[in-house]
Structure formats: C-alpha cells, structure tokens
Here is the input.
Amino acid sequence: MDEIMAIAKKHGLYVIEDSAEAIGSEYKGKKAGSIGDFGVFSFHGTKTITTGEGGMLVTNNNDLFKTASILHDHGRDPKIKKTFWAEKVGFKYKMSNLQAALGFAQIQRVEELVRKKIEIFKMYKRGLSKINGIRINSEQVYVKNSYWMPTIILDEKLGVDRDEFIDYLNSFGVGARPFFYPVSNFPEFEKSLKNNVSIQLGKYGINLPSNFDMNERDVEYIVKMIKKYFE
Here is the structure.
C-alpha cells in the first residue's frame, strides 16, 4: 500500500482500497480499508461480517462521501428539493433496512468474530505445519491477518491434482473449495501468462472450512484427513 499510495500521490489519483475480505486486518498499524481514499468491504454471505449481500464504502474525505452518496442513490442530490429528480447518472447501490440492521449488529461484535477466525487459523497452522509440500497463509511482521479463509497451497512437485484432492476431502464431509482463478484465465478476458504467482495460486490453492462454530475437534478431523491423503 505504501508504494500504491506514493504512485497515486505523484499522479494525483484517488485510491479505492479493496478490503472485501480483510475486515479486521491491519497494515503497519492501520486498519485495512483506512489507507486509501476509499475502503470497500464485502458483506456477502461467505464473509466475516455479512448482510447476505451488499457491502460498505468508507472514507474520511467528506467531498468524496457526498459524491458517492449521490451516485449510489440514482444520482439524486439531497440539496435539490425535487422529488425523483436525478441530477447525475447514478446507480442503485442500496440494501434493505433489515440487511443494514443485521450488518450493524455484526459490526458491533467484529473484534469477537475476527478473534475467532484467527483462533481457527492457528489450529490449522499447528496441525499442518509438519506436512511437507503444503504452505498455509503467511503473515508479514508489519501485518495483522484476520484470516478470512485458511488457505493451503500445494507444492507443484507433489504432483497432486488439486481438484481430485478437493473431491477426496469432500467425500469425507470436508467442505474444501478451490482458490480463486486469475481473472486473465476467464475466456472473456485477454490471456496473460506473465502473472505466474496468481496462476500458481489458482492452480494449487485450496480454501479450508472456517465456520465460526468450528472447534478444535473439527479442525483436528480435517487435518487428519489431509494427512491420511498424503500418507
């Protein structure tokens, strides 16, 4: 983020910080989403905090906030007292009152939810640390990772078919899922072979279960099934 913000400052650009899955994470003492001019968070059903769908936009810039508020409400400016009058081409980025209430209640306990995510990750790390050929989420010294998903990366040298391994875990009731594909892999976008890191992650990455109701026994069972596969 330091490098991104420096480039933006040099060229007079605004930075929209994608913190969709990073609520509770920190970078050099700053909360994810608070570093750029805007921070955006996802409240999809799979996220640490959820409203079912939708998300949250945050900023300390009052002018940008006013502009975003107009755009999200069909382009209607509250200063103009005309009913149903759209001053700009806008959008309909809203959530219902019920969704907002659910999200607000969860934000009030966000620290508790993040602590639980970190606790689940540490259980995985203890159990998987001695399995050769598997890497798990890393954390730099200047970062606090909220571990939205415990993710393992299989070493290419293992010769393991990632999808077959996921099928194996699923057969034992372990809801593992593949890591995200690089956008350049999708047929509607131009192919790129230069982004080696994202290609490798997309090919060998697996997201493991991390539901808040999980306990140590659940994690031990998943680790046991992973070890059994490699044995």
Summary: The chain has a mean pLDDT of 94. The radius of gyration is 21 Å. The beta strands are 16-18, 26-27, 30-31, 38-42, 55-58, 134-136, 143-144, 151-154, 177-178, 205-207.
